[in-house]
């Protein structure tokens, strides 16, 4: 097991690496003349699929045209967990923005 003191930095490093992969995919897409947003989405969707949060099925498996995604039970549970976990952060952001707006525009 990873000691708690190292868990957060390792999690952050993992997220940086994952985002770097997405940005690399976007750059490669631009170089190939493709839409970068699709490349970034593809990397993120593959990551979610690999973690068992979603499943993906090809519309026509022989042609691999469009891929349709569905959330799994594990993905729904993670979503519900994040909704609860993130709400206090969003409330803090709202308070901060409200204070900034008040300072700039007055009450």
What does this structure look like?
By secondary structure, this protein is mainly alpha-helical. 71% of the residues lie in helices and 9% in strands. The protein contains three helices and two strands. Helix 1 packs antiparallel against helix 2. The longest helix is centred in the C-terminal third of the chain and has 33 residues. The protein is flat and about 60 Å long.
Structural class: mainly alpha
**Uncertain runs:** 1-12
End-to-end Cα distance: 51 Å
Number of beta-strand segments: 2
Please report which band the strand proportion falls in: under 5%, 5-15%, 15-25%, 25-35%, 35-45% or over 45%.
5-15%
**Biggest sheet details:** 2 strands, antiparallel
Quaternary assembly = single chain
Q: What overall geometry do the principal axes of the alpha carbons give?
A: flat
Q: What's the mean pLDDT score?
A: 78
Q: Count up the helices.
A: 3
Q: What is the succession of H and E elements?
A: HHEEH
Strand line-up in the sheet with most strands:
1-2
What share of the residues lie within helices? Answer: over 70%
Query: Over all CA atoms, what is the radius of gyration?
Result: 19 Å
């Amino acid at each position: 097991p990873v000691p708690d003191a190292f868990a957060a930095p390792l999690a952050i490093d993992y997220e940086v690496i994952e985002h770097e992969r997405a940005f690399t995919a976007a750059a490669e897409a631009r170089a190939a003349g493709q839409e970068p947003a699709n490349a970034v989405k593809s990397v993120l969707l593959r990551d979610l699929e690999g973690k068992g949060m979603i499943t993906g099925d090809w519309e026509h498996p022989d042609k691999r045209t469009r891929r349709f995604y569905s959330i799994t039970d594990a993905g729904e549970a993670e979503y519900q967990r994040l909704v609860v976990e993130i709400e206090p952060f969003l409330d803090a952001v709202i308070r901060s923005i409200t204070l900034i707006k008040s300072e700039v525009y007055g009450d």
